[in-house]
Amino acid sequence: MVSWSRVRNGLLNAALAIGGLCVAVLLYGLVTRVLIPQPDPRRSPGGSNLVGSIIQVEVRNGVGVDRLAAETTHYLRDRGFDVVDVGNYKTFTQKRSVVIDRVGDPEAARKVAEALGLPPDRVEQEIRRQYYLDASVIIGHDYKQLHPFHNQQ
Predict the structure, then answer these.
(1) This prediction's pTM
(2) Cβ atoms of 50 and 133 closer than 8 Å
């Protein structure tokens, strides 16, 4: 027969273990947030005349692999970017992923590229103010090198 004190000690040990796990998870979150810089999804002051302060982007799938644009959209939204449009690019032959500046604010496009893990030389400029967004993301055949797809097989 199990005594009440043994049950109570077991429950206290379990509570301590769960509490310790919670503290470890919170410390991990704090350390990664403080030590690993995250790109700021806000526009630079005076960067564009679009509404709001959050960088607005569109994501285009230039490969033809299912759900690439959707997963990239989810990744960018988790980091605070405003993805206003998602879809396929005009072709599925895009070799390299690029971010295209649409309003003459290369800093905003650079922040999007940084969030995706693209080097600055993958930021291009093709002004299309009628798109009413800061940047376009075109996902290329090198998509497995992007941050949203690092942990996938």
Answers:
(1) 0.72
(2) yes
